[in-house]
Design goal:
6-stranded antiparallel beta sheet
Length: 509
């Protein structure tokens, strides 16, 4: 879970080497590997830093990991039988108070029969359905060549996610409760160059009205360029990287991002702060989840819309708050359980945070290089960073794994962001907002796209927030994965994540 965070942790690297964790939450548990459409990859929650939008919070949930841009002929639609949700706790009890629920529909052209071509002549002519998503170029103004259109609805639920009061979020232009999702970036022949696709996708950024909220929100759902950066392969091969590459902070950008050619699917909302917080509590908690019906019966006469029959109560199969928690913190035996659980029940996973295994594994792997795990247990520093929030920054009274954002702390403009976030505001275990580079608007105070959570979590796991070298002998080693993530890799305006990679460039690639 890219940022999930129960524990800090994350990934791997040591002065020697390191490579960060899988993607924040890509394929993080055995069961979710069977259901990529409902696999949450990253979750972001931050005070908007787009000029003029600092009265808003941006919530971004990414799904469907490791998309190869050339993934035809069906590409990467989301699951019409799933329920995708973003949850907000604004009372500090680790229970959702506001939930945004996304449901998807895939509609074939020609009243469900799909685009057809007349094949043959005279008495031998037949109209036959085509096998492709599109049969010609597509623009927002002309979708006539599109064979399948993905659309979605969005509801806001106040109170319990299943029994609370639900209402439709509607388009501020016309009042519709149904929104169109842009088709994935099939390639330059279907959509034109990156600028043309950006213009097309931009037509799917909606101003919306949220019942019970004052002020208009923004909404976008669509394919984006993979937003996570991590040295993916070496980290899971026992941190298989030469010490010379990552021996010091000067090499934080030594290796190209292996995920740079991948895409993901983004659910993005920009919501007025006044709609998310309470008057008494400036800290909000947030996480995303996906659920499926408990029962599935395969249809032996499957059709496009009903390959199976779904029924029963919703069962949660994916969960993501803080990054990289399920990948590198939760033990293998409990990974599926974690994905099915809610923050209010996180006491069952406490040992993974108070007595984390990652630092011990790094010491075993790199003893010869002088790496030593912290010696203080339980790890109260990790509990504060990932389970309670940090006193004076974003503690909200609960003990649970979720992102926490203090909405009263001002946003930092993109040009001034430190990719080590609020972690740069600590020295010898103490909070000091006067430190050079201190950026309290960044992770773990929420999470922005440019926050390098792999490097931050590695350092915190190895004791950066502890007070002295006795407690944490390796706390001042600038652990990193040799792959850099920073704000320059993202846009300055909503939805912040960039135009996806095309499936074809028109030059044979």
């Amino acid at each position: 879970m890219r940022a999930r965070k129960l524990a800090a942790a994350l990934t791997v690297a040591t002065a020697l080497g390191a490579t960060g964790a899988l993607a924040s939450s890509h394929r993080e548990a055995p069961f979710i590997t069977e259901m990529p459409k409902v696999d949450a990859t990253d979750f972001y929650m931050f005070r908007s830093y787009e000029p003029g939008r600092d009265a808003y919070v941006t919530l971004i949930a990414n799904y469907l990991p490791l998309q190869d841009a050339y993934g035809g002929p069906n590409y990467f639609s989301l699951d019409p039988d799933a329920l995708y949700e973003i949850h907000v706790d604004n009372t500090g009890d680790a229970v959702e108070d506001i939930t945004f629920q996304f449901r998807f529909t895939n509609t074939l052209a020609a009243n469900g029969n799909g685009v057809t071509l007349d094949i043959g002549t005279g008495a031998n002519k037949k109209s036959v359905a085509v096998p492709l998503v599109n049969v010609g170029p597509i623009t927002a103004a002309d979708r006539s060549k599109l064979n399948v259109q993905e659309s979605f609805t969005l509801k806001v639920v106040r109170g319990n996610r299943r029994t609370g009061t639900a209402a439709d979020v509607t388009n501020a232009s016309g009042g519709s409760a149904t929104f169109l999702k842009p088709t994935d970036y099939i390639g330059t022949k279907s959509f034109g160059d990156a600028a043309a696709y950006a213009a097309y996708a931009g037509q799917h950024i909606y101003s919306v009205n949220i019942p019970g909220c004052t002020g208009q929100a923004k909404l976008f759902v669509g394919q984006r360029k993979e937003s996570f950066a991590v040295n993916l392969g070496p980290v899971f091969d026992l941190v298989n990287a030469p010490a010379s590459v990552i021996a010091d902070a000067a090499n934080r950008n030594a290796v190209p991002n292996p995920l740079d050619e991948k895409n993901i699917t983004t659910l993005a909302l920009e919501v007025p702060i006044s709609c998310l917080r309470t008057a008494a509590q400036p800290v909000i908690g947030g996480w995303t989840s996906a659920s499926l019906r408990q029962a599935r019966a395969l249809n032996p006469k499957a059709t496009y819309t009903t390959p199976a029959r779904e029924g029963g109560a919703w069962a949660q199969v994916s969960r993501l708050g803080m990054p990289l928690v399920n990948e590198i913190v939760i033990g293998l035996k409990d990974k599926n359980r974690f994905n099915a659980s809610e923050p209010k029940d996180d006491a069952q996973f406490a040992d993974y945070v108070t007595h984390p295994t990652l630092p011990a594994l790094l010491e075993i792997l790199f003893t010869a290089d002088g790496v030593r795990a912290p010696t203080v247990f339980p790890r109260a520093d990790l509990v504060a960073a990932f389970l309670t929030g940090v006193t004076g920054v974003n503690a909200n009274g609960s003990t649970a794994e979720m992102q926490r954002l203090n909405v009263e702390l001002p946003a930092t403009a993109r040009a001034g962001q430190n990719n080590l976030g609020a972690a740069a505001c600590f020295k010898d275990g103490a909070l000091d907002t006067t430190l050079p580079g201190c950026d309290p608007a960044g992770f773990p105070n929420g999470r922005r796209p440019g926050d390098d959570v792999v490097d931050i979590e590695l350092r915190v796991a190895m004791g950066y927030l502890l007070a002295n070298d006795t407690q944490a002998p390796s706390r001042n080693i600038p652990f990193h994965d040799a792959v850099l993530q920073d704000a320059s890799q993202f846009d300055t305006t909503f939805p912040y994540l960039r135009t996806p990679n095309p499936g074809a460039h028109g030059d044979g690639t």
